[in-house]
Amino acid sequence: MKQLKKWTALFLAICCLLTLLPMTASASNGQKKLIALTFDDGPGPYTQRLLDGLAARGVQATFFELGMRAETYDDTTRRILREGHQVAQHGYDHPQLTSLSDDGVRWQIGHTEDILNDVLGRSFTYLVRPPYGDFNSRVLSLLDAPAIIWSIDPVDWRDRNAYTVRDRIVARAFDGAIILCHDIYSSTVDGVLMAIDILQEQGYEFVTVNELYRRRGVSLNNGETYYSCKPTGTQLDAVKAPVISTEIVNGNARVKLTAEAGAAIYYTTDGSDPVFNGKRYTAPFDFTVGMTVKTCAAYNLNGSRSETVTKKLDALGIDPTVRVEDGKIVFDNRNQNADVLFTTDGSVPNTGSQSYSAPFECYDGVLRFRALGENVCTPVKTIYVTKNGNLFWDVPNTSWYFDEADRATTLGLFNGTGVYRFSPDGTLTRAMFVTTLYRLMQRTDADLTPPETQSFADVPAGQWYSEAAAWAAENGIVLGYADGTFRPEQSITREEMCVMLDRLLDRFGITTSGTPMTFADADCISDWAKESVDRLSACGIINGQRGNRFAPARGSTRAEAAAVLLRLYDLIG
Ligand code: ZN
Fold it and tell me: Which of 40, 156, 190, 394 is catalytic?
């Protein structure tokens, strides 16, 4: 029994050790090994290939450029910054700084800074590496920047062999090292990329010089020299990209960007790169549909920044839908964490407006609504409601034809032209008119017998208007044209409408009375229509238009036709 306990204890101890082993092997206390690659004397013809290799491996590096090279390789210099590397400087034409006068040192550094700012389109402070690593206290005091030296020199400028470069870097690598390389040699590019593959396997993360020091809590001071940055006990994370969200303030949608404390946020809204064109974010800004937000967080856009994130802001959320069910208005909210807010007085639904909770009674008037909530702000929709339970997007309650559209729809005279669309200004074709007329008569006590024959050469069977056209022909309401056609798609003129209605009144024995109106344009009315126009104006079914004109040849709109047909309906009773 005692023996078993002992073995169990040993077994447990081994298990614990096995659990701990992978952690202690890769990094101490879960901290990553950091290392900084630096490239001097470029950019050059091999730098683009190096950048391709670094990008493929997710590696960041620092480039101590010569001013004279940056002038020539300006595109490469911009690519270096764009891809998250750090642009630093090495003087204009590689002099030994200690041999120059004060003004000479200032010119080398100042002129290169101007060139880099010009090429990059933004102003930065550039880390300096004195050529040959040659400096003294006088030179350091003139730099106005930290001086970055190195801790590993593979002597790649002398030994142009990729394997030699690789082996020296790998053999001497340590956590916090700064490695000196030159991207103007093809052998260096090959050797460095091979070394990266090996060191990444060993758990190294390649960072810019700025990041190496920032993540270990060490600040870089002007006029001081730096060779490496071994673990300090502090290890911060890489800069996290901002979070793009939207918020509603007083009913208006705003875009909000959030990043870790201390990091600046840069952004653009036109699709351009925030690293080059970004504005500094200070407060939420107005949201517009279709806006593309690109943003990154940075302690320094040059060398200490996050990845850039992009978000195209389409509509925020999904439009709620509205319908009428059992005479009540029902909203369908298709958004989570959002309410449907609505108003019935024409005002814009806002955070203080009524929130939809249950179906409510129809009324004659306007209904405006939208969904509002966390990350949801749909555009305001306006629809018109009638007591009879009709909804119209295009029939304002203030229009003269609001009641007509409502009654005509309720009676089923008009089929809408789409969901909740009446198209009041749409023109009325001959086919539409006879169809509404037929439907109207079906809703009266009139004795209607279904038509038996087809009537017109151009009205095929099975069309939505075929039966109505045949009925109109059989009852002598429509005679058609001399060539035997009906011309269903032709818009009906006002005088044609009068003639058809006149024949219908005759056919069904409806008597009318009253005095005909005298229209200002009476001379324009065709002879064959004069009597019909007189009769219909006398009984008030058709009215004049602006300026007491009849406008006989004008087409009728759907709203006008609805009004005429409803007066006929009332007359027939
Ligand atoms: Zn150099």
Answer: 40
